[in-house]
Amino acid sequence: MTLNIHSEKVFLSKPDAVIFDTDNTLYEYDPAHQKAMFAVNEKANKLLGVAPENFSKAYMEARDQVKKNLGNTASSHSRLLYFQRTLEILGLKTQLLMTLDLEQTYWRIFLGASKIFPGIQDFIQDLRAAGVRTAIVTDLTAQIQFRKIIYFGLDNYFDYVVTSEEAGADKPSKAPFEIALNKLQVAPEKCWMIGDSADADIGGAKNLNITTLQKRHAGVVIASGENTPDIVFDHFSELRALLHSKKWIPPVFDENHA
């Protein structure tokens, strides 16, 4: 697929800042999650004698209960809470050591199986070369999201990070976007939002009149209607090409041809 531009006018001038989502935008979420859950299921089977299908069913029920109880908050994504409630649903009561063990196993395998999308580092370096500020706006708690960013080697690529734990609410709430805009000291009309979620990323950014770019890959539902993104792209190299075509990137000085 190629770059799909739905609104040419918003790309007439260089953005002052670009905000990125994390999960399923900087890297592909599903393969890492599946490997992590496989490892957790194996451990539960080995240590607790719980059949994988029974553990998976209890986990999904636990996840739904936690999300219902906590609503649109960072802790509603907590694997620690999911595994605590999973064991309780299985009739094993609250087992603190086992809950911590399962959670640590999940994130260890998850991070090891996560790979950032090609071209993301080069794209961010292009933005910084062009004087464009960068930030992350991401759901989930700060500790694990900080760990992911550091694990990916991207901790020096962003000027600011805003988690839904800091904001008090997940996207598409305005709060995390507003905090990021305030940190970046940029008007929403001069900012881009790059993400994968039609509702959380694209819809949330559009609520503040931020230009939206949706990352397209397997499993992503492209936003439509009033949430139609300004750009849909498959590869970060396409965005790099856009920056260069607009001549927003300063030319590289070559001493050999000075």
TrEMBL record:
GO MF terms, alphabetically ordered: metal ion binding; phosphatase activity
Record has Lipid biosynthesis as a keyword: no
Pfam families, A to Z: Hydrolase (PF00702)
Single GO BP term: small molecule metabolic process
Keyword annotations: Hydrolase, Magnesium, Metal-binding
Organism placement in taxonomy: Bacteria, Pseudomonadati, Pseudomonadota, Betaproteobacteria, Burkholderiales
The UniProt record lists the keyword Magnesium: yes
Organism name: Polynucleobacter meluiroseus
Cofactor names: Mg(2+)
Protein name as catalogued: Putative hydrolase of the HAD superfamily
Annotated coiled-coil segments of the chain: none
